[in-house]
Amino acid sequence: MTEVDKLSPGPRDGVNYPLHISYCGNCTMPIEYCEYYPEYEKCKTWLEKNLPSEFEKVKIGDDGADGAGEEEKKRQKRGGKGMIKAKKKEDGPKQVCVSRAPRGKKKSVTVVTGLSTFDIDLKVAAKFFGQKFACGSSVTGDDEIVIQGDVKDDLFDIIPEKWPEIDEDFIEDLGDQKR
Ligand SMILES: [Zn+2]
């Protein structure tokens, strides 16, 4: 690989810089320079024993010359994206849950959870509920809003109206919480 190859076309998405450099135990050079070392065959033997993954790249390099580095970067890029997708999957099902909780002797509050599974800003949502029902409404947890009043049944209409991506079917009625 020449200096020009290394400098262009610059940083890529999905590749962490600086790139990890492995050094050869035979010639002590970064392994990409091994091929310029007279004892390249010994280098390869060392690589095969000590850095099998790097040895695979060298072998690819022998076949495809300069294209190999390119291929490797693409592979890293794809791998990175794959990991992001896998992470998203772990978020679990999207669902909003509403329930009624007693407050004092006669009053109830309404608890809404799960809005953040739809990427909804909880502060915005709490403010919206407060205005809609003309009552107190605040974010009380990681993904929990408490509305001061018994408005649970209304939420089945109001939530899909405000956020069309949340179908009424995505709203689970947990009923009354007991304390
Ligand atoms: Zn070497």
UniProtKB/TrEMBL annotation:
It comes from the Eukaryota. Residues 59-101 are annotated as: Disordered. Residues 96-163 form the SUI1 domain. CDD domains: DENR_C (cd11607). Residues 75-87 have a biased composition (Basic residues). Belongs to the DENR family. This is Density-regulated protein. The lineage of its organism: Eukaryota, Metazoa, Ecdysozoa, Arthropoda, Hexapoda. The gene is LOC108558128.
